[in-house]
Design brief:
This protein is elongated. The two termini are 46 Å apart. A 3-stranded mixed sheet has the order 1-2-3, with helices on one face. It has 316 residues and is mainly alpha-helical. Helix 9 links the parallel strand 2 and strand 3. The chain folds into 2 domains: 209 residues, Cation efflux protein transmembrane domain (Alpha-lytic protease prodomain-like), CATH 1.20.1510.10; 80 residues, Alpha-Beta Plaits. Helix content is 67%, strand content 9%. The protein has 9 helices and 3 strands.
Length: 316
């Protein structure tokens, strides 16, 4: 890819791509519905039904991304970033519902197969819609990593599922046309539905974990610990330590809280200056991170919780 093309992609925001997803969803609905109309294929119908989910998901994701970008206010001092988890959860529920509907319809067609018509046109229309979805999903994945947007990633994963869905439908339709075994069309639709069901379940699980303040990713946790260890090693032995280091994710944001212990004879100015250095180093190492550090003397331990809790790993 040329530098100019990469620069253009880097300027895309989740909102831009979700608007594009709405347009592509409308286009694929037309193409896949037409493919089902000309062939009478149950697999094509299941593929078209999922495109309606793509449209609803893109519209809801666009709304949630807009909410997530709202600045903090009095009632939401930490911002609105978790709104993106509602988007991916909603999309997962829609996917599960469509999968169950496809399984029900395909099971009836399995025992009452219908003749297929104009298979060539149906295959061409399905391949064209898959190419549109595949291209958009590729761009979405790149932008989702850059902006750390779970709503955009969820929509991209759904589009990839749609591509695999279309591939399965095309294989079933081609197999039925070549062999005369019409039941292959219904079997392909059922396999597609099972794949969609799996994807929907994974999206719902990830959304639930995000809403429950899941810890940051292991590689991010390792970066935080390495950054803190660098400051520990930069001081005299035993002079500085960090403990009760806890992290959480909230959409595009990541948060880390900790206690920083230093000698009691240090001046407040010295301690605050070092804390500022640690905060800046953490935020530079992990984009989107917000660090909260409480200062304590080395010989003082904090009572974090009155209730028994699992031990938290710290950097000493």
């Amino acid at each position: 890819m040329s530098d100019t093309a990469f620069f253009s992609l880097s300027r895309l925001t989740p909102a831009h791509l979700l608007r594009a997803s709405v347009v592509v969803a409308l286009a694929t609905i037309v193409l896949k519905t037409l493919a089902w109309y000309v062939t009478g294929s149950m697999g094509m119908l299941s593929d078209a039904m999922e495109s309606f989910v793509n449209l609803a998901s893109a519209l809801f994701a666009l709304a949630m991304v807009t909410v997530a970008q709202m600045p903090p206010d009095e009632n939401h001092p930490y911002g609105h970033h978790k709104a993106e988890y509602f988007s991916s959860g909603f999309e997962g529920l829609l996917i599960v519902g469509v999968a169950l509907g496809i399984l029900w319809a395909a099971a009836h067609r399995l025992f009452d197969p219908q003749p297929l018509e104009q298979v060539g046109w149906g295959l061409a229309l399905s391949v064209l819609s898959s190419a549109l979805n595949g291209l958009l999903a590729w761009v979405m994945f790149r932008t989702a990593r850059e902006h750390r947007s779970i709503a955009l990633e969820a929509d991209a994963r759904h589009l990839v599922t749609d591509v695999w869905t279309s591939a399965g439908v095309v294989a079933g339709l081609a197999g039925a046309a070549l062999t005369g075994w019409l039941w292959l069309d219904a079997v392909a639709a059922m396999l597609v539905a099972l794949n969609i069901l799996k994807e929907g379940g994974e999206l719902c699980w990830r959304s639930a974990q995000g809403l429950m303040d899941q810890a940051v990713e292991p590689d991010v946790q390792a970066t935080i610990e390495a950054t803190l260890q660098g400051f520990v090693q930069g001081q005299a032995p035993g002079a500085l330590r960090f403990d009760h280091v806890s992290t959480r994710r909230a959409g595009q944001r990541r948060f880390v809280d900790m206690h920083m212990h230093m000698p009691a004879h240090w001046t407040l100015h010295h301690a605050a200056a070092l804390r500022g250095q640690v905060e800046r180093a953490l935020m530079a190492a992990v984009p989107g991170l917000r660090a909260t550090i409480e200062l304590l003397p080395t010989d003082v331990e904090a009572h974090v919780d009155d209730l028994p809790d699992a031990p938290r790993e710290g950097v000493k």
